[in-house]
Amino acid sequence: MPVKKKTPTPKSAEKRVPKASPTQMDKNGQTARRMPAAVKNTAAAAPPAPDRSQMDSFQEGMRLFHARQFQQARELFLAATKGPDRAVSHRAGLHASMCERRLDSPGVVLNTPEDHYNYAVTLINSRDLAAAQKHLRTALDADSGADHVLYALAACQGLAGDLPGAYENLKRAIDLQPRNRLAARQDPDFAALVDQPAFARLLYPDKKY
């Protein structure tokens, strides 16, 4: 049988072997491999480690902010804006601006019990509960039978965790004005108290327990 000749492979079909990438020699004379670009980029993109001092400044600033010590709080918030955590920096910047507005605004002038009540409501909404209670008690000192003030005080105490005080003042508010019972049923500030047996009986006296 005659031997078949091999068909020569066209040059264009030959596999080209890529040339080896140049290598570098380390100081010991060993070949050092180059890090792929993708690996380098991944290492560069790694998030920075959390800066504890930045969070400490922000948290202490929040404590002073709620204590209405706006000048000291502003300084700590500004320090927190310079840390590596962008989310904390953003929040710190917002609170620093809030401190500046509080420092620039004139003092609140409260002349009547209703002024103290209205101001207390804004404090409750911002969850400055200790200051809100002071203004509500000032309003009650002038008019102990103001059911809407007692109602607000009960809500404030409930949010602050003072359940006995909240129950006592809500009951007084309902005794003075029964429609406060329905208002409390629909008020989200009292939602967490409805599961308490005493509050449930106060708000739903017709139910059998």
Describe the protein's architecture and organization:
- The protein has helices spanning 37-44, 52-66, 70-80, 86-104, 113-125, 129-142, 147-160, 163-176, 179-186, 197-203; strands at 24-25, 31-32.
- The protein has 209 residues and is mostly helical.
- Among the domains are: 52-104, no CATH class; 113-203, Serine Threonine Protein Phosphatase 5, Tetratricopeptide repeat (Alpha Horseshoe), CATH 1.25.40.10.
- A hairpin with a 5-residue loop joins strand 1 (24-25) and strand 2.
- The longest helix has 19 residues, at 86-104.
Concise summary:
This protein is mainly α. Helix content is 59%, strand content 2%.
Order of helices and strands: EEHHHHHHHHHH
Q: On the 0-100 scale, what is the average pLDDT?
A: 79
The helix content is 55-70%
Rg for CA atoms: 35 Å
Coarse shape: elongated
CATH H-level superfamily title of the domain at 113-203? Tetratricopeptide repeat domain
**Name of the CATH class of the domain at 113-203:** Mainly Alpha
What strand order characterises the main sheet?
1-2
Tally of extended strands?
2
Q: Please describe the biggest sheet, giving its number of strands, its sense, and whether it closes into a barrel.
A: 2 strands, antiparallel
CATH topology of the domain at 113-203: Serine Threonine Protein Phosphatase 5, Tetratricopeptide repeat
Global structural class:
mainly alpha
Low-confidence segments, given as residue ranges, are 1-50
Strand proportion: under 5%
